Amino acid sequence: MACAIAVICLSAFANEAAAEGILDGWSGDIFAGYTKTNGNTNKSTGSASAQAIKKFKHSAYQIKGNWLYSESDNKMDGQKWDILNRYTLDFGKDYRWYSFYQVLVDHDYFSDIDYRVTPSAGVGYHILTGEDFIWDVDAGAGYRITRYRVNTAKDDEAPTAVAHTFLKKKIFEKSFLSEDLTVYPGFKSDDGIVLHSETVFTNPLMDNLDFELKYILDHNTEPAGKKKTDTQIIAGLKYKF
After folding, report:
1. CATH class given for the domain over 2-240
2. Which pTM does this prediction carry?
3. How many helices (H) and strands (E) does the chain have?
4. What is the DSSP letter of 111?
5. pLDDT digit string (tens) for 21-43?
């Protein structure tokens, strides 16, 4: 199932790209943030993310990634990254419905996750499509493959459902507030639930430069001997291209 979803995603994108020119119509952004604390504890945290989107007439391909590294008193206490490949195809009346095919790969050193691969596919609906208010919801099914760094006895593979919503609303004169929430509930109770939420406040500084404040929450109901919830607050600059 994992291979089939990946092949569908890549072949659909390749067909669209070949038809319109693979280098035409790309847009995206790059975000970077850094904090340094001195005193009783010397702590530094670096965060970066990037995404690129290729839009076609009634479809889009997106690749995005996030990276975080932190250390306290010159000792690493945080290391995580994730990469998402996602293809969506609009259909139906006014093209408000869409199908999606995606593969998420993530790593979290201090949650003992060496890597986790989650291909999935499903359908969604564009509830709101205006410039000042966007709201999408979608749901589907996939397959979660988890490999642990230390506790390899917990290595697991299991089918999973997926539910996702993205909402972006204009606030004040030019600023935006967005919420990107994805939940992966297992089909069996002992498979657990994996949740990822990104709440972002964006304030434009220049035509292609924004200030962003992010609140990121990761939750796993069945962690491998680690805490269930991990949160981050990150401030930084985003360059759009």
Report:
1. mainly beta
2. 0.85
3. 1, 12
4. G
5. 555 789 999 999 998 888 777 88
